[in-house]
Design brief:
Blueprint lengths: L12 H31 L5 H30 L5 H26 L6 H35 L1
């Protein structure tokens, strides 16, 4: 009932946290693989290099924007509050968006490559941070349940 249940399924703050974390994990997973596939597809296009760069960064921007909208809409549909995990993922998404716009302008329009090294380092780091955020709640939840069992 994590995805299709109603507000009546969310009785405690722990339930709200679980639902929000699940929605966040589901949305991150879906859009991560979507952006990866779309990115590979665009990079394989036989078109002028600058146009391909512009299309790539614009599509990455749009996919990240759709991620934020989808996460927000899923929370509204489920009528649950945003967990810290979801809020941090949305904040990281804003940083992703900023990086995509900077790369679109500098690398895709002006052909300036100096920021490209920063971009190539920050994107994997931010993806690892996002994964860590998503994994943190289930690990903490399991750890807390084990501690209660042993008490």
């Amino acid at each position: 009932m994590l995805f299709f249940g109603g507000k009546t399924d969310i009785k405690t703050q722990s339930d709200a946290l679980l639902h929000s974390s699940f929605l966040c994990a589901f949305t991150v997973l879906f859009f991560h693989f979507t952006s990866w596939g779309v990115g590979r597809y665009i990079l394989a296009f036989d078109m002028e290099v600058m146009a391909r760069r512009q299309l790539f960064f614009f599509m990455m921007f749009m996919i990240e924007f759709l991620f934020m909208i989808t996460l927000f809409v899923l929370h509204k549909i489920r009528r649950c509050s945003f967990s810290k995990v979801a809020i941090y993922c949305l904040r990281l998404s804003l940083l992703f968006e900023l990086l995509f716009v900077i790369e679109l302008v500098l690398y895709g329009v002006l052909d300036i490559t100096e920021f490209n090294n920063v971009y190539q380092v920050l994107i994997p780091i931010m993806n690892i941070i996002t994964l860590g955020l998503i994994v943190a709640y289930p690990v903490k939840h399991i750890r807390d349940k084990r501690i209660k069992i042993y008490e």
